[in-house]
Amino acid sequence: MQTKLKTLIKSLEKTRHKYWNIDHKTGQFLNLLIKALNCKTVLEIGTSNGYSALWLAEALTHTGGHLYTMESNKKIRYPLAKENFKKSGLKNISLILGHAPEDIPTTPKKFDFAFFDATKHEHQDYFEILKNRIKKGGLIITDNVHSHKKALHSYQKTLKSLKPWESTFLNIGTGLLLSRKKA
Ligand SMILES: C[S@@+](CC[C@H](N)C(=O)[O-])C[C@H]1O[C@@H](n2cnc3c(N)ncnc32)[C@H](O)[C@@H]1O
Asked: Torsion angle of alpha carbons 57, 60, 66, 68, nearest 10°?
């Protein structure tokens, strides 16, 4: 990772709680996963100030891929993310001011990887609109399944019961659910 980007990531960690960012370890894990799976097209729902997106987009510079990241907060977090992406020098990010799931159709048809980190009770809706837009063998990673156990209970149950999907819990950060669409 370039020094300039490392410095930006480190500086954003000072306000991590204010902007509900994932932790450093989760960022490293997602970054490594995208590189290991050679993902090209990634969608994030819930950009906030862009911290997690920097980890995702950095990984995509190694695979020649592109990040689409969606944020609904027009006044504060969307402009902050825009500014942080400019500072990062990364050219492979499309920041979308929009509300999922309604605005997901403005993004490309198929994704290798999606990261859900927005309003917990809407996750089922994100999944419904995206399930046919994740490539076979592709992944959905859902954040906060440990910290928001109750709010994400039925979502987790649904995903675990669906035959075309296999899911497992990973105790990193606030808890990740890894769901793979079977090939
Ligand atoms: C937990 S924060 C995201 C943190 C970010 N992924 C990170 O780790 O740096 C959740 C963000 O999702 C946004 N959000 C909530 N519901 C949304 C929706 N339906 N569509 C788009 N963004 C949404 C919120 O405004 C908030 O900024």
From this structure: -40
